[in-house]
Amino acid sequence: MGRIALINNKGGVGKTTTATHLADGFVREGRDALLVDLDAQASASLSLGCEREDLEPSIATCLYEEISVEKVIRTPPGSDVDLITGSARLQNADVRLAGELGRERILQEVLKEVDSQYDHVILDCPPSLSLIPINAIVASDWLVVPVEPHYLALEGVGSMLDTVESIKKEIGDSARLLGIVVTRADFRAKATKQAIEMLRREHGDTIFDTVVRGNVRVSEASSYGTTVFNHSPNSTGAEAYHKLTKEVLNRLDQ
Ligand SMILES: Nc1ncnc2c1ncn2[C@@H]1O[C@H](COP(=O)(O)OP(=O)(O)O)[C@@H](O)[C@H]1O
Ligand SMILES: [Mg+2]
């Protein structure tokens, strides 16, 4: 069993898309995978076909009301993965959980119960480093950081990783960086290649070989409530996420 958190304090970098496709990809490789949507926007849940009116019970139910996770796991319409939905109730998690003892470890406790049922638990985080992502980092064995290959975005990656390190040190946590994945790459822009070269210089083998290009089939799939593996299995998006799934599993199995 291993838990993987998708983190980046920047929004729109492909966290949710990578979380849903790794989870779906793992299931397609015969692994038992659980996806936990920790974002109040619930993009992961919605992009796997859940209805906005039907997001409860969600992970918020477990975090706030000590309801067992087993009771909130469902199979979304668009994938065979097991899912715990996110919901708008996560919006004020910082305030609601602030006074709790061990507030950074609530998610870890909540997920313990289902550890033995899954090979992989994937945590999709909101774009911040506030209490919910901190809970995700603490609950995880591995971190995967999606980045967009834009010069300005790259500058932020180093400082974000430093912040994550200091959070871990403070809490005494041991989640390790599994890798940085370049997503939404557009090679028509000259700066893309340069940005990727810069990333590889700075972070070396931490960067996954697979680069996920911008592909309209990927964004279409989420609006149809499913993954690109279902929506457009022969697309470059499906091929890239298939390759990334294999690469992630290789690193995990080492
Ligand atoms: N490879 C891709 N090609 C095209 N669109 C993508 C790709 N990856 C993500 N997107 C789209 O970009 C937007 C942001 O991606 P998302 O995964 O939600 O980022 P985050 O979770 O980091 O905010 C979404 O609308 C998504 O559908
Ligand atoms: Mg997201």
TrEMBL record:
Organism lineage string: Bacteria, Pseudomonadati, Rhodothermota, Rhodothermia, Rhodothermales
Name of the protein in its database record: Chromosome partitioning protein
InterPro entries (alphabetical): AAA_dom, DNA_Partitioning_ATPase, P-loop_NTPase
Top-level taxon in the UniProt lineage: Bacteria
Span of domain AAA: 3-171
